Amino acid sequence: MKNSRKSKSEATKSGRIGVWLLGAYGGLATTLVAGARMIARGLSGTTGLLTATDALRTLDFPAVSDMVFGGHDIRRASYLESATEIYAQNRTLDLQKLEVIREDLAAIDADIRPGCSLNCGPAVRGLKAKNGFRAASPAAAIERIAADLKDFQARHRLETVVVVNVASTEPPSVEPKEASDSDAFRRYLKTSAAKRLRASTLYGVAAAECGFPFINFTPNASSLWPAVQAMAVEHGAPVAGNDGKTGETLVKSALAPMFKYRNLQVLTWQGYNILGDRDGLVLSNPKHKSAKVKSKDGVLSRILGYPLHTHVGIDYVPSLGDQKTAWDFIHFQGFLDYKMSLQFTWQGCDAILAAPVVLDLIRFAELARRRGESGLMTQVSCFFKSPVGVDEHDLHFQFHHLLDYARRVQAKKAWPTGRIARPGEILFGAHRP
Amino acid sequence: MKNSRKSKSEATKSGRIGVWLLGAYGGLATTLVAGARMIARGLSGTTGLLTATDALRTLDFPAVSDMVFGGHDIRRASYLESATEIYAQNRTLDLQKLEVIREDLAAIDADIRPGCSLNCGPAVRGLKAKNGFRAASPAAAIERIAADLKDFQARHRLETVVVVNVASTEPPSVEPKEASDSDAFRRYLKTSAAKRLRASTLYGVAAAECGFPFINFTPNASSLWPAVQAMAVEHGAPVAGNDGKTGETLVKSALAPMFKYRNLQVLTWQGYNILGDRDGLVLSNPKHKSAKVKSKDGVLSRILGYPLHTHVGIDYVPSLGDQKTAWDFIHFQGFLDYKMSLQFTWQGCDAILAAPVVLDLIRFAELARRRGESGLMTQVSCFFKSPVGVDEHDLHFQFHHLLDYARRVQAKKAWPTGRIARPGEILFGAHRP
Amino acid sequence: MKNSRKSKSEATKSGRIGVWLLGAYGGLATTLVAGARMIARGLSGTTGLLTATDALRTLDFPAVSDMVFGGHDIRRASYLESATEIYAQNRTLDLQKLEVIREDLAAIDADIRPGCSLNCGPAVRGLKAKNGFRAASPAAAIERIAADLKDFQARHRLETVVVVNVASTEPPSVEPKEASDSDAFRRYLKTSAAKRLRASTLYGVAAAECGFPFINFTPNASSLWPAVQAMAVEHGAPVAGNDGKTGETLVKSALAPMFKYRNLQVLTWQGYNILGDRDGLVLSNPKHKSAKVKSKDGVLSRILGYPLHTHVGIDYVPSLGDQKTAWDFIHFQGFLDYKMSLQFTWQGCDAILAAPVVLDLIRFAELARRRGESGLMTQVSCFFKSPVGVDEHDLHFQFHHLLDYARRVQAKKAWPTGRIARPGEILFGAHRP
Amino acid sequence: MKNSRKSKSEATKSGRIGVWLLGAYGGLATTLVAGARMIARGLSGTTGLLTATDALRTLDFPAVSDMVFGGHDIRRASYLESATEIYAQNRTLDLQKLEVIREDLAAIDADIRPGCSLNCGPAVRGLKAKNGFRAASPAAAIERIAADLKDFQARHRLETVVVVNVASTEPPSVEPKEASDSDAFRRYLKTSAAKRLRASTLYGVAAAECGFPFINFTPNASSLWPAVQAMAVEHGAPVAGNDGKTGETLVKSALAPMFKYRNLQVLTWQGYNILGDRDGLVLSNPKHKSAKVKSKDGVLSRILGYPLHTHVGIDYVPSLGDQKTAWDFIHFQGFLDYKMSLQFTWQGCDAILAAPVVLDLIRFAELARRRGESGLMTQVSCFFKSPVGVDEHDLHFQFHHLLDYARRVQAKKAWPTGRIARPGEILFGAHRP
Predict the structure, then answer these.
(1) Which are the contacts of D72, defined by CB distance < 8 A and separation ≥ 6?
(2) N or C: which end of chain D has fewer CB within 10 A?
(3) CA of D341, closest CA in chain B: separation in Å?
(4) What is the CA radius of gyration of chain C?
(5) Of the candidates C311, C315, C319, which has its C-beta nearest B331's C-beta?
């Protein structure tokens, strides 16, 4: 059984591409892989994929059935096992359909390699995963990762490999001054100071040096430090990040503009997220949580244009599994300074919400590569909580920025390429062109 | 004491204009009048007025302190009495500030005239109001209304009088075929068939024939039948409607696009509104409710582009007064057809939300008049549940349409004028220019 | 394969009893039958069964594994089919466990007989079920039902057959004056006037005349008119009803006392229920809904002791299936008449909530029969929205009434037997002994 | 103007009593004092007072109009000022009624003395209050407090003085071993180790040594260490605590039993409280919050009888003022281990909810004193989050325990007196008599 198979319902416009998942056996990656195979075999539709809508489907995206999956993980597992665990916990993956794709999943298992857990933080260490690899130095680790990626490409004869970081959130990193320049950073990687780097940075570097597109779906900003972006540009690879926007923050970025449109003053926006699952367990560790909260918290004042009282809580509730529940309370002031409120409860399954967004991002990354675009993809800012180089959090602006891109693609017009955002540099946003 | 006084904080750019309120002693009108006077006297800020934000404040709007108020009502009352009742019920109007504007309110009382309650429906009849006027025929009623308007203009030497319908919702009207043409409708008004017309139509005709801007803040579509719009165009008056969008529908129109941006399939959108107050009492009558529900219900499928299960409930809960509470439950399907939900509870005070929107509309209407624009103001569609001639319910599109207008005004560029929308005719929306 | 099998984990204290389900292929009955077989085979625990808690488990209840199932239905179906449909819709029944009890379910199918749909109302007619039987007269229908029950008992050599009405809600019935006396009602059944009777009455009569315990889990009060209760007493059978309390009303009856304990004045209690499923479809018909709403609506003023503004809405939302969602808004007044609010959202699966309550009721009915008690079982009032003969809706009082009963049973003490409640007659409640 | 005046609507059954408030100018104390005077003058009803209901009103309680108010505070203020601030913030106190009781409030101001802030914690220090007194030693502080109390009694010729702790929550205290015995503790108070004691302990001792009833409405358990209870018994004074149950915890204790009554397994109960106000500010300090959270957290597992995942969050939201809002999410498992949920949002004003409860407690304390009862009042456990000596958190049990007491009072029967609860000792609860 081969690790890919075309569905008849999907018009194939191009050759096969690799999708390399960092955190390959996590809930999101498992849902993504199983879902993609179900779509490829015609067992499921494409709800949740923006690239499947009338507005976008005519672009030259790779078919889902043309994606060949592989990845790194520090845990030893199998997709069938991981998917069955998800069925038991959330009932999101249907048992009968899993039976049909059983061999596809087994074939993908053969392409999962031991992962790198360097400095991934206390909560990841707590998972006591046994399939992480040890390397003599960060440079050696990057070399090994790159070798895995290239081997995967060669064995499957793939046009490219899109690398996607869907691993657990790491604690925040301190950016060394060398991270602003690709050559300085290459030298830095050989020093002993580099031992402080976290795994996500090494993955980002490896993908960039291979010239493979890289999507950072986590809040680990270090995956896309300016030096890493610059390496990607040097090798002609598009990159995008950070931190997929799939739940409470998505609602925030859609709803906050409403208050601006009515000159209603938002006094307070409290948000409480509760979730179980491995992701929730890792985030329940304060060091890991801080990176996530930071990513979620900046959205509101950027949209509204003034400071306000906000709070973003994340608490671990094992019984919920992947059914993330969020309660937001918005206190606002209207005419004659009268106070009113809006509250919402969001009940979504994180992996179900994120998986199609990752598929969309893979397709946009590959489309950009085909068009010869490299560096930051600001066009996909609507999919991220902290879009790099983008100072616009209003979901509607972000969405229309994506439509602008699509129109240019359709008209075969150029789109800025080779972009890098240094800290504070804004490519799209408040000072919109 | 004069019925107007300038606040020092407001730069006055122009002469005084009249604001004529249909339903002058209702909760919304009272909040509007009291709030405007508080702003004029520097007792309150302008939160809730979009026209007071940085994006718009430089346009040539009339100052709030330059507005002179009058109106029609079928109930005998006084503003101090009505405002004190609102304090007791909702605490929205501050007692101490009411004391300061006591004489302003008394002066406005002198400009309230007996209203017309022709065919206003069973619930309005049930109010047993004693200050309605009787007229020999619809034509005579229109004449009397017009005389009141002109007398008001003359006595206060006003540049114009913006007429605003903030009366209770009437039962729906059947549009006679003559209502599509101004001359045919003028003839129809003299026939006995015209006795079926409801008061809101007569008010609309009177304003149009006087060449006064008319804003229909209610769902009574008959105020703006094509013939009425045509009369307004003939006399150079701008018009806008229908039905102010201030609560649950506002949230809907901001939130629904989010599902489209993610290709999440909305299966069900149930909305339940509960409110007290005279408005709630009138809407608890099924005949009156039907007009309102119709106005609220079309929004979703227009935004999403497909039919879905929707429900809009309105129930009368006396204890709430004007504190409208709405619960919406949204059931949607994502990747692999997995079902998830979002629910929200909106707790707002209707009059507090609506009053600044009415002030914004008055200012836009007067701005249009000054610029020589007549007929339908599609630029203000973001303020209405059922914007006439507009097939766009996405709040963000509507808002950006308004910003487009503002940019044209600032650039002293033309904007289409003399527009009328016949049934099914779309001036802005799905087939956007 | 036999229609019963003991689980080793259940101590068997007695012989086998029949459980006869009216509406045997409905969602509740299917969940009940499948769940009981899963418990019997040790595939599932007893969460949800009050009779399985430490407080009650030592009473002489029949084991779940000793229950033999049969029933009437007007639809032709099979349990495996019905259960698989439930899996697809709600995922409440696990596919792998259904596989294990596949033969048990098939055996029970052999004991389902064509049902009676006489005057069941327009929505039931709308289901176009094809397995209803036609009888020459109500008396003939009763005879046929009784024959089915006795045949079931004989074939399986059962100690008794507990008859449970879990069919769809019928429209309300008008109680004829003859329904207050058993003999008068027997004569009435032979007249042509009896043709107006609804199926639920005929089932109630048949069970009573057979001396079989009868549990009316629906709001069809006619199942337990005084004459029917009297027949049950004459034949030594216990009866209980009406309308299982499993969701929003359960929460109401637990929460309303809190306001009384603090002298907080409840001004308004609005409740909105949304649900899909066949049950929701039937209730979306106004005639059927009225019986249900009446049953739900009396609870609050009885608990609080004063009239208040209440509303109970039930709306059909197909996408929800059996996942009933209810939003309740409670507006109350405290010290210095200040208004505050509490709102809750209940998200439960109706069949999952009801099935264990039905099992509890079957066990209490059989316990009563063994103890020689007949007529109304007021001890189980906590399980009903409209407990017959009981004027107490406070869940806590009701629960402690049940504990009182349990203590008497354990102490082998008598409990009043042979009770009938005529309209307005109160056996337990406001005038508590 | 005298600091008391009888309302004609209140039957006076006895002489005047003093009410001494610790934290006299706080929001709760101000609402209590203003509300009591409004009731005394017939400006307001008694909603919220359980002692005003039919079930209890016939007991020999002191009239609200017979209460004479005084207290300690570390802030300098006046009641009119404090009450006007509350109006501006929450609108709970009506301006027009405040005008009527203006002189009553001024008279009470004359009875407020500088308070003790010894070891009240960092957040109270942060308030930078300027009216705290300094004492040479804890013993000297107790002496000064006692002198203030006795002086108050003498000047107003009061039968007794009920001392009520409504001050801010202190950080938790470590109980010294000497706190289990009154004499040992009296000796300890003279040692330098006693300098660690917090103000609330000193107040508790002073009241006990004066023989004045003491109500600890805060979670500061140190106010009622066994030694302090013993002192109260020695001087014939009743005492009660800890921590008034007025909001989210009240709902919890009413609702949790429902799950037990249905054998529904509660998996998770997450609670999030948000509030502004001085109380919220103090609780936003982690040291102060810990005492509060501990008090709120034990309720659930005690009611349900098994451990479960719980969380109690308290966050400071300035814009809310005293309008405490709480969201609770309850995840539970039913039949066949299916998971369901209930969530509620509580929106109450803390002072409005607490003030009548304090009045109820004062009345019960005085009733106990009149009946010669001393030591712990277990009868009022329903009013506390952590009732001392009581291992019963089910609100319904607690309420019926109070009714039992009332019946005994009415029947002039004895009730256990002279009770002290040492740690772990249970006077009422799980092992109910």
Answers:
(1) D20, D21, D22, D23, D24, D112, D113, D114, D115, D116, D145, D148, D203
(2) C
(3) 13
(4) 21
(5) C319
* 3-state DSSP assignment of residue D201: helix
How far is C-alpha C374 from the chain's CA centre? 18
- Three-state DSSP at A310 gives strand
Spatial contact of B279 and B350, defined as CB atoms under 8 Å apart: yes
By CA distance, what is D315's nearest residue in A? A311
Residue D96: CA atoms inside 13 Å, Cβ hemisphere, count? 9
Strand D67-73 relative to strand D17-22, pairing: parallel
Is the Cβ–Cβ distance between D319 and A267 less than 8 Å?
Answer: yes
Distance of CA C294 to the CA centre of its chain: 16
Of C270, C315, C333, the CB nearest to B270: C315
The answer to whether residues B217 and B386 touch, using CB atoms and an 8 Å cutoff, is: no
B415 in reach of chain A (CB within 8 A): no
Q: Which of A171-180, B254-263, C104-113 has the lowest mean pLDDT?
A: A171-180
40-59 in C: which are within 8 Å (CB) of D? 44-50, 52-53
The 10 Å CB-count burial string (b at 16+, else e) for A76-94 is ebebbebbeebbebbbbbb
**Who's near B84: CB < 8 A, 6+ residues apart?**
B95, B98
- Read off the tokens for D222: 């140190």
What are the residue ranges spanned by the domains of chain D?
Answer: 17-244+352-408, 248-348
pLDDT band at C14 (very low <50, low <70, confident <90, very high): low
pLDDT tens figures, D174-232: 999 999 999 999 999 999 999 999 999 999 999 999 999 999 999 998 899 999 999 99
Reply yes or no on whether the pLDDT at A430 is more than 60.
no
Query: What global pTM score does this model have?
Result: 0.93
Q: Model ipTM?
A: 0.93
Mean of per-residue pLDDT scores for chain A? 91
Which H or E run contains C39? helix C27-40
SS3 content of chain A, % helix, strand, coil (to 5): 45, 20, 35
Per the DSSP assignment, residues forming a β-bridge with C206 are none
Complete edge-to-edge strand list for the sheet that includes strand B339-349: A309-316, A265-275, A323-333, A339-349, B339-349, B323-333, B265-275, B309-316
pLDDT of res. C86: 93
Alpha helices in A177-285 (DSSP H): 182-188, 199-210, 226-234, 248-261, 277-283
CA distance B429 to B421: 13
C96 contact A CB<8A: yes
How is C176-215 classified by DSSP, letter by letter?
PGGGGSHHHHHHHTTSGGGGG--HHHHHHHHHHHHT--EE
CATH class of the domain defined by B248-349 = alpha beta
CA nearest C88 in A: which residue?
A: A94
Name residue, tokens 């005579």.
B140
pLDDT of B296 > 80? The answer is no
Catalogue the E-assigned strands of D8-104.
17-22, 67-73
Of B402, B358, B252, B299, nearest in space to A261 by CA: B402
- The single-letter code of the amino acid at A175 is E
| Of A162-176, B23-37, C35-49, the least confident | A162-176
Architecture of the structural domain at D248-348: 2-Layer Sandwich (3.30)
Pick among A89, A92, A248, A270 to test the D interface (most D CBs inside 10 A): A270
* Distance between CA atoms of residues B331 and C190, nearest Å: 51
Distance CA B43, CA D64 (A): 39
In angstroms, the CA D275 to CA C141 distance is 64
- CATH superfamily for B17-244+352-408 is NAD(P)-binding Rossmann-like Domain (3.40.50.720)
For chain B, the average pLDDT equals 91
